[in-house]
Prior knowledge:
By secondary structure, the chain is α+β, with helices and mostly antiparallel strands. Helices cover about 20% and strands about 30% of the residues.
Amino acid sequence: MRRLTAAGTALALVLLLAGCSQEHYDERGKADAPVAGRKGDDTPAEVYNFPDGFGNLATKCVGDGRRGYATTRHVRTEGDGNTTEIVITPANAVVVDDPDCDQP
């Protein structure tokens, strides 16, 4: 019985850790897009947290005279007690002109 319990625990652990692999993360489209030559702007964005039920917002300058805004993806469950539905609001990104983002 102990061997069966140990084997079951080991199997559960392997399955749990396999779901956390970078391959699994990339395959599901949740990882960042690749950046050619690892070049890019890694400065932090300003993040505005909204109350639960609303997507958070991040913004930063993304080029000469441009500002990018992005929201987080939001997942919520709706139901009437008999049925349950998962509703996913996708992340959105917008780039707008912003003279404050002019770079010297």
